[in-house]
Amino acid sequence: MAKVRTARPAEAAELTALVLRSKAYWGYDAEFLAACAPQLRIAGAQVAARRIVVAQDEGDGRVLGLASLEGSWERAEPAGSEESRGGRVARLGLLFVEPDAIGRGIGRLLYRDAVRRAAALGVGRLLIDADPHAAGFYRAMGAAPSGRSPDGLFRFEVAPVPPAGWALAWTGGVAAVHLGNVAEFNAQFQDPSLDDRQHAAHHYACLAAFYSPSPAVLVLPRAVPPGWIRLLGRQLGWGPEVEVYDGVAERDPGLSDAVRARPALAGRVTGRGLPLVPWGRTAAFSELAGLPWRPRELRHESKSAAHELFGRILAGGGHPLIVLPGQWRAGTRRTAVRLLAARARAGESTVLKSEHGVGGSGTTVVTPAGVRAAGGARAVLRGLPRGPLLVEEYVPGPAGADAGPRDLTYDGFVDGAGRLHEVGAAVMDVVDGAYRGATVGPGVVPGALEGPLSAFGRAVGRGLAEYGYRGWFDVDFVVDGRGRLAPTETNLRLTGPSVAFMVAARLDVLRGAGHLVRIVDRVELGARLPQAQWDELCAGLARACAELGAVFVPSVPTAAFDPAPWFGMLVAAREAGVLDAAEELVRARALAVGEGFAPAGVQSSKSNGLVGLRVT
Fold this sequence. Notes:
alpha+beta; Aminopeptidase; D-amino Acid Aminotransferase, Chain A, domain 1; eight-stranded antiparallel β-sheet; four-stranded antiparallel β-sheet; 22% strand
């Protein structure tokens, strides 16, 4: 492993020699190198002025590479000059790695450090002039091509940004302990629409890797492939100090209780003074974290309670572009049959909901034609989970191929002091009431909708805070035929869109501002693969997406070893077309693996008990 430190003036001659060795690695002849030498020479007096840092091996102390961040802001730049456009401008003047260390991540370490330092200095534009051998590296690191420099080199630009304010507030600006208690959260509601075994919930607990932009510890119910952890560390710039405890509750939904049953593990999780971030609050998590448990805080996870809150907010006025669909609680099946039949006779479509279904579970859209085809309202309800139902007015969406997004969500959180923090809005991919993914990033939500959506989302957040809720929340909407927003539910927990926001915040810090991130709930895999081939597939997908200018992050790996294999993923890019191309590439290659490998038995990773995996 290597660490970055400030270079010393006394090292100037040694650093110059490193630069020349690194330049020679690419096959330049002696005459060319001699001509470059004066430009590449580092004088001792320049080390501080050029903000030079080195990557030093933590084992033997050897310097493995260096980078400079150059720019002077003590004088005003002439109006219209390159340095006056877009705010403060800096240049990545040098970035060189010892030839025998190339491929070990040293260049990536130095580059990301330069982007971080530039953001801290208030740099708005970081310019990079690269020779042809380095152009691919900078493109893969997220720098945007911008033509040629005056001397003919490849020009790249980056827009460095500090961490988002909400991301700092979420965990207090420090790394956090992530607890994947998805099944535990769902189980507390005992909703008939949820799987008793919580099989899928244990898979989606892998999303714990993304509960904040910077994890310190991951606690996962199922064993996960070590190669997955290493790839996440590479793609998201995690340090080697991230610890992973997996296989803690392979079948039992009670992850928090399973941690408490292991005193040594509980000590590692709670004894470091770091914030604990779960998927959602439960009594067992509160006991583990030493927090008071107030179940009434989760009241608005109920769809009927959320509907009541929406009604109270709209009764106060101030949200003219928000409309509330009618909703009726059917305490018995007879009542539900009567309501559904009456609406079908009137030619109205209906949404039938369970109180606590997640991801579209327990939500069914029924048209009048569907009622007739099933043989009546009673026959429709026979195929639905038992228990109370909500009967809700169906909101028709905009017509036409260019109607715009139909399903939107607003994300925010209420901190421990009751303050509201806005995270943003996203477009969801929902088919027949079932959530399939979401996209976040600049320009994703149409401008005409973003204002009223955010205003109502903030009002909901304030209402939740007044009720005592503390934590992450979202508000889901559909768009009606007149372009108005109809709120449908709140979620008092993390979700797929929240994970996408976390990854976008992390990539913006590592690679510069402006990332679009899409989370895809399920990607079909053409065959079950042995673990080694699964790792190879993911590494190949990461490389292929990088060539497109995108980032690939597998988010749910454990389902890849199921009898009917699939996985979840995130892809990121700065352009919508590149994002679409990356998703299409991943889906195609995932399905094609069956052509290259015969179906194989599951080779699951073993639980590492209390041994933390050191992420590289």
